[in-house]
Amino acid sequence: MVEKRHFYLSDEMLRESPSITAYSSPSLTRRQELADVGVPELGVEAARKAMSDWGKQASDITHLVASTSSSGCMPGADCELARLLGLRPSTKRLMLYQTGCHSGCTALRLSKDLAENNPGARVLVVCAEVCTLSLRGPSASHMGNLIGQAILGDANGALVVGCNPTAEEHAMFELVSACQETVPGTEEALVSKLREEGIVYTLDRDIPRHVSGSVEWLVELVLQEATVSVPDLNEEVFWVVHPGGRGILDRIESKLGLGEKKLAASRAVMRQYGNTRCSSVILVLEKMRRMSE
Ligand SMILES: CC(C)(COP(=O)(O)OP(=O)(O)OC[C@H]1O[C@@H](n2cnc3c(N)ncnc32)[C@H](O)[C@@H]1OP(=O)(O)O)[C@@H](O)C(=O)NCCC(=O)NCCSC(=O)CC(=O)O
Question: Does ligand 1 come within 6 angstroms of the Cβ of 144?
Answer without folding.
Answer: yes
